Amino acid sequence: MIVESQARRMTRTLAAYMVVALFVFPLYFWATTAFKNAKDIFNTPPTVWVFEPTLRNFEEVFGISLGFFRQQEVLPGGGNFFMAPRLWDSIVVALGSTLLSVIVATLAGYSLSRMDFRFRHLFVGWVLSTRMMPPVAVAIPMFFIYKDIGLLDTYTGIILIHAVMNLPLAVLLLKSFFDDIPRDIDECAMIDGASRWIIFRRIVLPMARGGVAATAVLCFIFSWTEFIFVLTLTQTGLKTVPVVSSSFVTSTGTAWGNMAALGVAATAPAFLFILLVQKQLVRGLTLGSLKE
Amino acid sequence: MRDSDRKRYLAKIVDDYVRRRISRRQFLTTSAQLGLGAAALGTGMSRPFGGLFTPANADEMLQPSQEVLDWVADVSTPFRGTTLKLATESTPPSNAINSQLKPYFEEASGMTVEIEVLPLEQVLQKLTLDIASQLGTYDLYYIDQSWAAFTSRDVFDPREQLADKPDLAMPDWRVEDFLPALVDGIARYEDRLVGVPYDIPIFIMMYRKDIWEEMGFEAPTELEQYYQQAKAITDAMGPEMYGATGQMKSGHYSLECDWTAWLWGHGGSIFNSDGKFSGNDERGLEAMEYWRRLYQTMPPGVTGWTWDGQGQSIAQGVAASMMSWGEFFPYFDDPNATKVSGLMEAARCPAPKNPLRTVEDTGFGEIPGVGHQGGSSLAVSQNSKNPDAAWIFMQWATCHDTQVLITALGGGTGPTRTAVYDDPRILANRRVGPGTTRHLNVVRDTIAMDMGSEPDLPEWAELANDTIPVRLGKYFAGDYGSAKEAMDDIAQAADKIVSG
């Protein structure tokens, strides 16, 4: 048995802490910026640990007064940085497009994994190729199409475009997850008289739920952070967080405190979603990593 | 309570509120008891930069004019239920209208106004798309002065609207009431008016009075004197304090803005009368030499700052002066946001070193002047489905009364109408504090005497946002052997773009 020296262990631990700090510090700095006054945000030298905390940035972003903690009241629904509805827009769009992507991709992924048809491999390549087109090249033509068919500035329009954007990756991911489930299981079920649909719904899909969760998380994150389509295909009806974040850039400066407050608030739904599927996610990410 | 007592008491409680001696709840309650309406509406909602909606004074003067609202209600009858859309940069006028004044218009007109607030480059993208598609997704355009040329045929000329629709014309709303220099510099392209001037950020000199006094200086009146003062401060107080600061981020429009101020200030111009780039001539190189020297007096990191970082360097007490957008001044006076409240003073920009070139000496309508302006106009789109309704909104948004409210509630932004500067509601706010208007006389003088306007040509947006600032950034990064080499490179690229 190799015994690690104490010095070596301490060095390793210290190095680990430093690496963690490297990743955590920017998050800490951003999160604390949300609780700082303008004076502290721009202080020279920067105020990192000691500052007078305020909830004003959150109050302005959410248009509410935070009762006991109130330092200065804010009118409900007031100011230019009132962004609470935009957080809701982001949640609706991300959840809607994720759901749509996962439903379609699950069916498509299973079909590509299990069904043999001509040019199947070409079909897979074609699905992947749609992901290679940069969104900015599609955004302008989509604007004209959406305007014509009345989808401009609507939830449906943005959910659809995000779903389409995520589908190639989701289909390929899920296909690989389905590929990892032995075909023998399908064949045994068929011998027992199960239909394709029954096999898919009752046997294969439950076995691949870790993969589905991992795919859903990726789709959610891509939709949550997507910028160019929302910018081009919306006006005043809805906006997601990445696009409204740019509204904090004004003609005479950037409202960093408000932007940080919205950023901190915006991580909560994504964090919650990932927390909910965490168990499945770990299974999904490790699915197929070991072959028998 | 007698009227005089009531007014005195109102003034006292507003003063208490502004000085944070009473809470907003107490202020609102007391105001309501005294019948104070719109003046109280603005309190509590604030923007971090120049947007503190501090009431100029306490009485009913800060309520929208009933006469104006009656006119809106009267002419809007056929348009009730109409929805108007406008995409605009996040500027003080747009923010004041969007967050505070719009409800008054909507209530009177029965229309809905949807304002999309975006950074400038995104406004340009939306506007370009709307013009190219001719779909009329926006009824009104917010037009930066550098876009006037390519939008001129896609918007209504307000003079034509006044003539064609006399029944929709607001009484006493005249194009002649706008500052003539702004009409020429922002809204005019060839024979057309591209809307009317809507906002006017303009370069003024802002300096730390305490430091200037400590050094025994007077406000600089000439460019060379300004450099000597900035250098003396940096030498004496650096690295804690620098004499000057800038907005010199490589590849950013702000760098081009700084360049033009020094170029024009040395008697140069961007184009000559033949339409060729002339920043590489003798005066252009003299300006570059001056700028290089002044750059030595600025804080390290200035080449990474746009106007945002520049303003912060003053606000946090790192730099003592800047020649930049006057919109910053009311923000500097906010004790909750900066370290320099009450310490800043505004002055006209130092006089040019060489005689300014005339418009005839330059190309594409360029107007040389040390006070670089970045104003914008508001215009009704030719593609709008509701041009008449949009025209009513445009008149309301740019009328005297609305501009007073924008200036008073929107944080001391510069009005574009002559008479607004002397309005009692604006004069009442000339005191140290957020949203002050004590710098507006300097702004007005600068517009009248020092204003410089960029050329109007369709390619200008590309030149100003890419060609010129990218190469200037390379110059300050040391990628060129000399200023001449950099300017020659810009000349070659600019002439190629202009010639198509």
Largest sheet of chain B: 5 strands, mixed
Domain module tally of chain B: 3
Count of helical regions of chain B: 21
Terminal-residue CA separation of chain A: 29 Å
Q: Into which percentage range does the β-strand content of chain B fall?
A: 5-15%
- Radius of gyration computed on alpha carbons of chain B: 23 Å
CATH topology value of the largest domain in chain A = MetI-like fold
Seen as an oligomer or otherwise, the chain set is heterodimer
List strands and helices in order, with pairings.
The complex is a heterodimer of chains A (292) and B (500).
Chain A: H1 6-33, H2 38-41, H3 56-62, H4 84-114, H5 120-132, H6 135-149, H7 155-179, H8 183-191, H9 196-207, H10 209-225, H11 228-233, H12 241-245, E1 249-250, E2 253-254, H13 256-276, H14 278-286
Helix pairs in contact in A: 1-13, 3-13, 4-7, 4-10, 5-7, 7-10, 8-9, 10-14
Chain B: H1 3-18, H2 24-33, H3 38-41, H4 66-75, E1 83-89, H5 92-109, E2 112-118, H6 120-133, E3 140-144, H7 148-151, H8 158-164, H9 180-187, E4 188-189, E5 192-193, E6 196-199, E7 203-208, H10 209-214, H11 223-237, H12 253-265, H13 282-295, H14 307-315, E8 321-325, H15 328-332, E9 344-347, E10 371-372, E11 376-380, H16 387-397, H17 400-409, H18 424-427, H19 440-449, E12 451-452, H20 460-476, H21 483-499
Parallel strand pairs in B: 1-2, 1-3, 10-12
Antiparallel strand pairs in B: 3-11, 4-5, 6-11, 7-8, 7-9
Helix pairs in contact in B: 1-2, 4-5, 5-17, 12-13, 12-20, 20-21
How would you describe what is shown here?
- Chain A has 292 residues and is mainly alpha-helical.
- In chain A, helix 3 (56-62) packs across helix 13, helix 4 (84-114) packs parallel to helix 7 (155-179) and helix 4 packs across helix 10.
- Chain A has a two-stranded antiparallel sheet with strand order 1-2.
- The two termini of chain A are 29 Å apart.
- Chain A has two domains: 6-69, no CATH class; 84-286, MetI-like fold.
- Chain A is built from 14 helices and two strands.
- Chain A has helices at 6-33, 38-41, 56-62, 84-114, 120-132, 135-149, 155-179, 183-191, 196-207, 209-225, 228-233, 241-245, 256-276, 278-286, and strands spanning 249-250, 253-254.
- Chain B is an alpha/beta fold and 500 residues long.
- Chain B folds into three domains: 3-36, no CATH class; 66-201 and 374-427, Periplasmic binding protein-like II (D-Maltodextrin-Binding Protein, domain 2, 3-Layer(aba) Sandwich), CATH 3.40.190.10; 203-372 and 457-499, D-Maltodextrin-Binding Protein, domain 2 (3-Layer(aba) Sandwich), CATH 3.40.190.
- Helix content of chain B is 44%, strand content 10%.
- Chain B is built from 21 helices and twelve strands.
- Chain B has helices at residues 3-18, 24-33, 38-41, 66-75, 92-109, 120-133, 148-151, 158-164, 180-187, 209-214, 223-237, 253-265, 282-295, 307-315, 328-332, 387-397, 400-409, 424-427, 440-449, 460-476, 483-499; strands spanning 83-89, 112-118, 140-144, 188-189, 192-193, 196-199, 203-208, 321-325, 344-347, 371-372, 376-380, 451-452.
- Chain B has a five-stranded mixed sheet with strand order 2-1-3-11-6.
- In chain B, strand 4 (188-189) and strand 5 form a beta hairpin.
- The radius of gyration of chain B is 23 Å and the shape is globular.
- Chain B starts with a helix and ends with a helix.
- In chain B, 59% of the residues are buried.
- Residues 1-8 and 31-59 of chain B have low confidence and may be disordered.
- Chains A and B meet through helix 6, strand 1 and strand 2 of A and strand 1, helix 5, strand 2, helix 6 and helix 14 of B.
